[in-house]
Amino acid sequence: MRDNVIAAIQRLGLSGYGLSQELPFDSSGQSLFIKNPKRVYVDNEQVEEEPLYLTLGPSSLDIMNNTTSVTVFIAVDAKNKPSNYDETLRKLRSIKNDILWEGATSRIVNVSSEYEGDLLISELTYEFTRIT
């Protein structure tokens, strides 16, 4: 899934922003997106399984919702926000339907922003759910 998100971001050709193949944190736990503003970082996927219908028979007959999520991080200087920042976030939000994830019954992207020092950090979490 992480590779699919990276591929979709590469197809956007974001002007003025780099795309890192690295995970967003280095070995000391430092956030790389804070050290390297204007670079997009994609985290590892997270998987959550939730029962939809449980049966009294073997567990192989249970129906589950499987949600796979991937978070993307981008930081910019809050005082001198790039003029194309909002457009970049719009483009990043729009790729949820372009990310290949067979059998997805739900595709959601959640966006949140926070300030850390003089940086504006945005997190986009793509969530794809399928029934198994």
Name the shape in a single word.
elongated
Percent range for β-strand residues: 35-45%
Number of helices: 3
Class based on secondary structure composition and strand pairing: alpha+beta
The third-level CATH topology is STM4215-like
Order of helices and strands: HEHEEEHEE
Residue-averaged pLDDT: 92
Rg from alpha-carbon coordinates: 17 Å
CATH architecture: 2-Layer Sandwich
Task: Provide the helix percentage.
Answer: 10-25%
Q: Could you name the ranges where pLDDT drops below 50 across 5 or more consecutive residues?
A: none
Main sheet makeup: 6 strands, mixed
The name of the CATH superfamily reads: Phage tail protein-like
In angstroms, what separates the terminal alpha carbons? 17 Å
Please give the domain count. Answer: 1
CATH class type: Alpha Beta
Number of strands: 6
What does this structure look like?
There is one protein chain. Strands 1, 2, 3, 4, 5 and 6 form a six-stranded mixed β-sheet that branches. The chain contains three helices and six strands. The protein is of the alpha+beta class. It has a single domain (2-131), classed as STM4215-like. It is elongated. The chain has helices spanning 2-12, 32-35, 85-94; strands at 18-19, 39-42, 46-53, 63-77, 106-116, 119-131. Helix 2 (32-35) links the parallel strand 1 (18-19) and strand 2 (39-42). The longest helix is centred in the first third of the chain and has 11 residues, at 2-12.
